[in-house]
Amino acid sequence: MSHQALGVLDRALKGDAGALSFLERTASIYALDATNPADPKTYGCWDFLNQALNEVERHESSYHHPQQQSMGMQQQQQQPYANLSPHVQLLTSLSRRAARRPPPSDRSLIQTCLTNAATSGALRSASEQVFRALVDLNCQTRERVMGRIAALAFDFSLHIAPAGSTAPRSAFADPLAMEGLCTIVAANSVSSGPGAFRHLVDDWIVPSGDNLPPYAVAAVCAHLANEAAGRTAPAGTSDALREMFPTVVSGVLAPALADAVRESDVGEGGAGGPGGRGPTRNQRLAAMALRAMERWCSATGSGILHIARVCAKGKAQVNIVEVLSDSLYSDAEIVIDAAAELFDTLLRRGSEDDTALQGMSIVSSIMGIAAGNVGASASIGAAEGVMRDEEREREAILAELVSAIGLQRFRFSAAQSKGAAAVCRCLARIAASMTVAAQSAIGSGRLADSADGLVELLLKAAAHPSVHVCGIALEALPRLLPSRGTDFSARLLPVLQQRAIVPASLRGGAIPAQPAGAGDCGVDFHEYVSFRQNLLGAALLACYRGNRGFFLESCAAAVDEFCSQPAPPPTPAGPLQSLQLPYQLEAALFCLGAVSADASKRAMLVGSNPAAMAAAAKATAARGQRAQSADDVAEDARRHDRELARVVAALSRNPANATSNPLTLAQMCRFLGAYAQWLSKTPSPGSLDNAAKLALESFNLASSGDGYARDPAAAEMVTEMSVSPITEAATALRNILTRSPGRFATPQALSALGTGWEASYTSANASDQTIAIEDREALCSGLCRVLASLPPDQWTSSLTSLSQPTVNCLELITKQADDAVASAPKSPALGQILTRIAHEIRLLVVMTRAFRDAAKKGGGGPNGASAGMGGKPAASSAGGSDDPNDTLIAVLQRPWPCLSHVAQRYSSFEPIASAFGELLVSAVQIQHHSTASLAFFKGLCDMAADAMTAAQKGGSAGGAGSSSHGPVLFVREAVDVYGPLAEAAAIDSAAVGSGGGVGTDATEILSILERLLVLSFEAARSSTGDLWSGAAQQGHGERPSERSAPTESKPPPPLSGAHGRLAKSPDEISAVFSMLATCVARCPVLLVRLSAVPGAGGPDQDDPSLFIGSVDAAAASLSEKEADVARSAMFFLKSLIEMRASSDPSSSRSQLIGSAADGAITRVRRVVILTLVTGICGIFPREVIEPAAGLLAVILKISPPEEAEASSVEALGQEQFRMGDEAREASLHVLANCARGTCPLSTLTEFADDLWQLHQCDDTGAVAGGDEVIRFAKKYRIQR
Predict the structure, then answer these.
(1) Which of 1072, 1084, 1109, 914 is nearest to 986 (CA)?
(2) How high is the pLDDT of residue 687?
(3) Measured distance CA(1161)–CA(1092) in Å, rounded
(4) Which residues are CB-contacts of 958 (< 8 A; sequence separation ≥ 6)?
């Protein structure tokens, strides 16, 4: 027996690429069979579906026939497919996509197939009648297949198994397959238009509801609403949906739901569970009816009040509130889950009504105040009165639901005791939704009495061991805190503190296999950390704001108590896995850290003036918290300071409990870092010193060889929990040193800090390398800020001492790299050595940036802000200079030869290239006053040139895989700093009869920047191949005069982009475009007249080839799949166009570059418009839409009107635009206004975003003519 279609489905289920591709093509296109030219046939999705249905029925008829049941097992096992349920499920998915395609689109696809066949000669002799016959035949096949699918969906025998029958069920009776069949019926009805939609509902669903399987009716109704609310629904569908809402909900869904809920826990098991296990048939029906009601309410925007009125007025007169309350008592998870979805939708609409009522009240009050608006005020008042009446009616319904949901707290406890975490989760979700909807009524006291049960349910949910249940409750509980008073905060805090303790199931390994509800939190450690930082942290902050004093006293008392106990001794099970004390301490510190931002601010008010106290009291009242006077704030501040000092003192008095556990140690350091600002201001004696000592000792402990690395249990915790005590200790030290640098600028403190700095190198040199480079950078940053607080005459000596270990290590490891390259150039150890070199360079970057920034803020000297230029590294500055740049140049003196050597030999290694880029970018900001002002800058430029050359050619350690991204960023910064000086020199050199008035320094800087820019173009060319080919021709010795004018070459084709042409990192290309944008802003003459042969420019030699090639490359990169490349290209082109639009035509700059710049823009103008308009039709990534709209606005504005119109029409006429003529006219209207300058950028950006959104749907051919498109056209002032 042939099973061709089933064979394809079977191979697709097994992941066969050919079968999957066949199904994809079958769902999207039609094929022509012209083997017999006299009888051509088309083949597509409907033909495949028809064949597959036949094969499934034949297979089941053959192997499920009663005669087959008497066969032996051996004969039965010979059947090709033992279970066809997966095949039918896949078939329904394929059918759903075809059913969503409107019949006109189906006919269009057939016509396209036939037209292509006629063009290719396959149907030369076919007449127009043959074409029409084939199109009509396909329409008939669709109707026939849809009739078969509807018959299967409404077949009673597939929904109810005969009592006592042991015969195998049909694959169509599978619950997922059956729902898929119902989805196809609904999708075909909606895609066929509002008429077919109404026909199905009014002529079949409503009058025949009692004669059709209830589950199928509910499922079809659910998917009708789902499909009708989609973006591809035809025009008029949403209106039809709203018109039929009362009939469907009150006449079909509500009665079915009431009957199913009444009998939901009685009856045989459904088809989904063998032997009667799983949900019963009534439970499945109740869940589907709830889902259907949720879909209809969501699609029509109906709330609880509307649906209650509709159901009460219906023929069945169903009390839907009572039915929904009864549904909460179901034993089936699918029913509770569906009820939770429905409550979410219904109550969300109620919250929107509350907001609308508040807005109406505000408008009414404003209109009442304004004179002469009596009529308008009366109308608004009447509307407000109607809304208030509805609000009172809605509150009555909410009160009933609040009471009903509150009663579920008893069932919640029973479900928790049985381990039914899913039921607990659904009940918590319903309670949370009700809390949000009734928040204003509960807060005002109108539902105070009936809300107690709801609050109790939420508190039980917050204490549930499952994070999924607890998280839902924690989202809702903060909403109740402002109205429940300080007592409720005091009641909630112990629950939150208990949830902050790391569950036992997460300590020391993976989650153990145990049933939900038996202490298992239901997540891994990383998910738990996210839960603590977000949901639990927000709840703790709300609880703190509800009762600040109690919160801080409770947490401080807990820390004091835990620290007063002796450290737990080791046990045979290990000191970390079974002892509770460290985890309790960690939780208390976490609770304090969660409120650090607010608590620090309040504690720092100690000693503030009365005005600051009054401002704090006003801010507290503005946030809806308990009002306080200035005196209350002052007392609260003293209380905060006292309690925080108590915590620090307790930790300092007995740190053993914290240091015995890496998780607790990390949390302690996080606490110290979070309160560093308060530590710098507190009058409490010893707090700052104790905190710094704790942080330094923690850092030394965590980084030492005798620390956690040698403790197996601790090592397991660090690995499993991804906790890093070193990182937290380094961050705490950095924060403390940064906030109070002067406090540690003493010989004793500097000696202790120096010990910690040396310990970081000991750890970094160890074989296990327990300390990361980010931790060393954090420590280095804090130390630099301390050194910057010293007197300026000590800067050079102190910073040199700090850099000494770094320089020594850099020189030593560079020698090791040279030896490794000479002896074993492909050794794996070489990569580790080069990575360490990159790390040491990164430390030099941190020293440069942190020290310079700190010295500038400290105001110890001229802070390096002058416009002078740098001195050479070899020139040591005087020890008494108060310019931080002198110090930095002196410090960089020693490693300079080593850095130059590394740049020449190892810049092909990506981490080194990146580190060098950061060093160059930070060093270019060093501007020094000296007679040799150019030496330092020239040295940096030489190093950048060496790095770019090595990255392009590949070197001893990296080959051709590295990037010039870092050095190109340096060029951008160099242009930003020195560009104006070079621009003056470029203008001076281009002027005929110039006297060289800018000086030799400016001329030399011009030459340096020209060289760097050319090298940057070469780097871009090596990364993009032919993308920069027009500019690259000038890099091989060809003089500008030897080639044709650049304007004769063709611009890049539209949408060609750079796809597939980025041979290296796209970051490099993005950096080049960013550099070009900086050139446009700082030195446009230099950029436009730049020659690919340095030194070739001059007053008689205008060579814009590199510039024009760059503009061409930017235009070609607009559609690059890497979003950063496309964005940077857009910013470059936009800055260029805006520069030309704002230039004074009579200025010397415009006269020098005007023709070249305007010519380059003209070359790509049409291509850019086409690419941008086509790209926002769903092709661009989402993050590119806003810059694309900005570029489109400026380029349309400078384009001639006829060209702008022609380009817009051409772009919207391409196949990428799939929204039809109405939307095309609206789009042309917007683009025309933009070209005239009458369309604001915000409107264009919104238009581009809407256009992009409309194209984000599957290819069903149903975008044009839908409700969404009609709304789009109306929004942009085009009426139907």
Answers:
(1) 1084
(2) 94
(3) 20
(4) 906, 908, 909, 910
The most confident of 131-145, 962-976, 1182-1196, by mean pLDDT: 1182-1196
Residues 6+ apart with CB under 8 A from 695: 669, 672, 673, 729, 732, 733, 736
The residue length of the chain stands at 1280
Find where tokens 């009716």 sit: 217
Tell me the pLDDT tens digit for each residue of 1222-1261: 888 899 999 999 998 888 999 999 999 999 988 887 555 5
Spatial separation of the C-alpha atoms in residues 1041 and 1046, rounded to whole Å: 11
How far is the C-alpha of 997 from the C-alpha of 741, rounded, in Å?
Answer: 47
Token couple for 1188: 């694309």
From residue 423, give the alpha-carbon distance in Å to each of 430, 514, 802.
Answer: 11, 18, 61
Q: How far apart are CA 230 and CA 228, in angstroms?
A: 5
d(CA 51, CA 3): 9
Distance of CA 630 to the CA centre of its chain: 42
Nearest to 1135 by CA among 1190, 1087, 1092, 1077: 1077
> HEC profile for 152-195?
HHCCHHHCCCCCCCCCCCCHHHCHHHHHHHHHHHHHHHHHCCHH
Distance CA 523, CA 222 (A): 33
Residues with Cβ < 8 Å from 4, sequence gap 6 or more?
51, 55
**pLDDT value for 275:** 39
Q: What is the pLDDT of residue 945?
A: 86
pLDDT value for 857: 79
Q: What is the 3-state composition of the chain as percent helix, strand, coil, each rounded to the nearest 5?
A: 70, 0, 25
Q: Report residue 378 as tokens.
A: 């009366």
From CA 91, how far away is CA 694, in angstroms rounded? 65
Instruction: Please report the sign of the dihedral spanned by the C-alpha atoms of residue 170, residue 176, residue 182, residue 188.
Output: negative
Q: pLDDT at residue 135 above 80?
A: yes
Contacts for 553 with CB less than 8 Å, ≥ 6 apart? 639, 643
Q: Do 444 and 398 meet the contact criterion of CB atoms below 8 Å apart?
A: no
Q: Using an 8 Å Cβ cutoff, are 547 and 599 in contact?
A: no
Residue with tokens 């950078």: 777
Torsion of CA 846, 852, 857, 863, to 10 degrees: -170
- % of the chain beyond a pLDDT of 70: 79
- Residue 139 per-residue DSSP state: H
Dist CA 1247 CA 1237 (whole Å): 15
Residue written as tokens 């509709």? 310
CA distance 1102 to 1098: 7
Q: Kindly report the backbone phi and psi dihedral angles of residue 1266, in degrees, each rounded to the nearest multiple of 5, phi listed first.
A: -85, 170
Q: Which 3 state secondary structure label does DSSP give 813?
A: helix
For residue 507, what is the DSSP state?
A: S
Please state at what angle helix 1201-1212 crosses helix 1220-1236, rounded to 10 degrees.
150
Q: Left, alpha or beta for 624 (phi > 0: left; psi -120 to 50: alpha)?
A: left
For a pLDDT cut of 90, what percent of the chain falls above it?
35
Measured CA to CA, the distance from residue 839 to residue 417 in angstroms comes to 54
How far apart (Å, rounded) are the C-alpha atoms in residues 1042 and 169? 83
What are the pLDDT digits (tens) for 1-45?
A: 456 888 999 899 999 999 999 988 888 888 888 777 777 888 888
Q: Is residue 510's pLDDT more than 50?
A: no
At residue 460 the predicted structure's pLDDT band, cuts being 50, 70 and 90, is: very high
What's the pTM value of the predicted model, to 2 decimals? 0.80
Q: What is the pLDDT of residue 1187?
A: 95
Q: Please tell me what DSSP assigns to residue 1098.
A: B
CA 683-686-692 angle, to 5 degrees, is: 110
Q: Which DSSP helix (H) or strand (E) runs through 1122? A: none
